[in-house]
């Protein structure tokens, strides 16, 4: 029987302390990354408001969270049962496969034995687990304009209601409203100064922010509203490209970013961002200096607002703007990161 969970505050304290007492009995879903972890996970800890706690792995999966690649919560069950470990490995090797009982028989496995093993160790059957992993494929079909019934079958759902409920839990929208829309994909990128969240469509990067930025939940809400889309966890080409460019940047090999960027906002705001991108690494400018460079010396406050509206950290280098007296000014990622980035770029230059 699953453990009756204590209060979220108690579980959050256990998460911060990496208390092993709840290992295997309680899991945390992190809203900003879309992953779920053991409470003993060594990854950077989320803020309390970005956490959800669950008593079982099925509850995590059904809420739309995917297993953490660091603490690998599914491996604990696999370690106790070779059969479970084997099939979890097969699923990871071929994530797009739609599994059936016939596939299990082809592997010379008894479906009943598999069903009991997974129910015993994960609280759900192997086929149910595989179906949840297929849900993302069904959403991609919706985004391509496919009828809801086609996407439902692609995701392996026999029940129309079950599919609609699963999509709503995962991306916060109903399937019919996702048709013919590019779904935004989100994934996390590790850096030496903390994890970042990247959000992109198939063509351009829309957001790149540090996970612990307090305004991140608000920015994600505005992004969904502005693009009339939903965000699911996955990869697109712009995310892969910006990750490679960030790696080169932090390795001091390059400060060039060529990833295609979605840049909404007024013409003036976009001009400010273009001017920011033109500041060479290792150089800082003041708000007044930026305003003068734009031919608008009296628009210092407007320049500051445009600078603060930037949602593409590092690639659009708003960290290179300082006060007229040389002091560090506000930075959404934290002043310590701003100082680190400026010093890093001086060495790089």
Verbal overview:
There is one protein chain. By secondary structure, the protein is of the alpha/beta class. The chain folds into 3 domains: 1-73, DNA Methylphosphotriester Repair Domain, CATH 3.40.10; 91-181, Homeodomain-like (Arc Repressor Mutant, subunit A); 188-349, Orthogonal Bundle (Arc Repressor Mutant, subunit A). The chain is 46% helix and 11% strand. The chain is built from 16 helices and 10 strands. It has helices spanning 8-17, 57-62, 75-80, 82-93, 101-106, 111-122, 126-143, 148-154, 160-171, 175-178, 216-227, 237-250, 267-277, 287-293, 300-308, 335-348; strands spanning 27-30, 35-38, 51-54, 66-67, 184-189, 196-200, 205-210, 231-233, 285-286, 321-322. The protein has a 4-stranded mixed β-sheet with strand order 3-1-2-4. Helix 7 runs antiparallel to helix 8, helix 13 crosses helix 15 and helix 14 packs across helix 15 (300-308). The chain starts with 7 loop residues before the first helix and ends with a helix.
């Amino acid at each position: 029987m699953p453990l009756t969970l204590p209060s979220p505050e108690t579980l959050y304290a256990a998460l911060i302390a990496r208390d092993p007492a709840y290992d295997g009995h309680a899991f945390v879903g992190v809203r900003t990354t879309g992953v779920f972890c053991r409470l003993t996970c060594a990854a950077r800890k989320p803020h309390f408001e970005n956490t959800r706690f669950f008593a079982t792995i099925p509850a995590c999966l059904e809420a739309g969270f995917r297993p953490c690649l660091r603490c690998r919560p599914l491996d604990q069950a696999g370690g106790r049962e070779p059969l479970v470990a084997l099939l979890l490995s097969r699923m990871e090797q071929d994530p797009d496969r739609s599994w059936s009982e016939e596939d299990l028989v082809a592997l010379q496995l008894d479906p009943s034995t598999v069903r009991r093993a997974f129910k015993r160790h994960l609280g759900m059957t192997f086929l149910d687990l595989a179906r949840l992993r297929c849900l993302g494929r069904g959403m991609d079909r919706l985004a391509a304009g496919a009828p809801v019934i086609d996407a439902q079958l692609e995701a392996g759902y026999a029940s129309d209601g079950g599919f609609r409920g699963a999509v709503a839990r995962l991306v916060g929208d109903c399937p019919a409203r996702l048709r013919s829309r590019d779904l935004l994909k989100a994934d996390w990128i590790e850096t030496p100064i903390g994890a970042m969240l990247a959000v992109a469509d198939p063509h351009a990067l829309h957001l790149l922010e540090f996970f612990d930025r307090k305004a991140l939940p608000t920015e994600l809400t505005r992004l969904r509203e502005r693009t009339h889309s939903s965000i699911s966890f996955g990869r697109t080409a712009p995310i892969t490209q910006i990750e490679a460019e960030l790696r080169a940047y932090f390795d001091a090999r390059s400060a060039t970013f060529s990833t295609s960027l979605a840049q909404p906002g007024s013409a003036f705001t976009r001009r400010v961002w273009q001017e920011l991108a033109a500041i060479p690494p290792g150089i800082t400018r003041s708000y007044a200096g930026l305003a003068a460079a734009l031919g608008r010396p009296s628009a210092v406050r407007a320049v500051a607002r445009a600078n603060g509206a930037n949602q593409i950290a590092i690639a659009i280098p708003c960290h290179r703007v300082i006060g007229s007296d040389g002091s560090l000014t506000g930075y959404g990622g934290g002043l310590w990161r701003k100082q680190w980035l400026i010093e890093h770029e001086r060495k790089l230059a």
